[in-house]
From TrEMBL:
PANTHER family: ARSENICAL RESISTANCE OPERON REPRESSOR ARSR-RELATED (PTHR43132), HTH-TYPE TRANSCRIPTIONAL REPRESSOR CZRA (PTHR43132:SF6). InterPro entries: ArsR-like_HTH, HTH_ArsR_DNA-bd_dom, Metal_resp_trans_reg, WH-like_DNA-bd_sf, WH_DNA-bd_sf. Keywords: DNA-binding, Transcription, Transcription regulation. Pfam families: HTH_24. PROSITE patterns: HTH_ARSR_2 (PS50987). This is Helix-turn-helix transcriptional regulator. Residues 16-111 form the HTH arsR-type domain.
Length: 117
């Protein structure tokens, strides 16, 4: 294969993925924060967690968890629902879920094993 052909294959790959690149860059930037990543891993294993449960799971303060959840919620990665005096948080973004699978983030009886997306 010539240098030109080899370079064209790379250029074609970049062109094919360029439309989705901004979205993926945003996802990578969002999960590049250790606090948010810890929360996402805990939430992946134990969906429908409260702030206090996530704080205990991650050894972070409740205020830190709340601020990180606000960022994740604004980005559309997690959802929240009211449950009496608690708010329950769940990971809802399939791309982030897949990234957690790639990291081998564990499941639990609260989130049993399932095929990768």
């Amino acid at each position: 294969m010539s240098e030109t052909e080899h370079g064209k294959i790379g250029a074609d790959a970049v062109a094919a993925t360029e439309p989705s690149m901004p979205d993926w860059i945003d996802v990578f930037a969002l999960v590049a924060d250790a606090t948010r990543m810890k929360i996402l891993i805990a939430m992946h294993a134990a969906p429908d967690s409260s702030v206090s449960q996530l704080a205990a799971a991650t050894a972070l303060g409740a205020n830190t968890v709340t601020q990180a959840l606000a960022t994740l919620h604004k980005a559309g990665v997690v959802s929240v629902r009211a449950d009496g005096r608690y708010r329950r948080w769940t990971l809802t973004d399939p791309e982030v879920h897949q990234l957690l699978h790639q990291m081998r983030a564990p499941h639990s009886e609260l989130h049993p094993e399932h095929p990768a997306h």
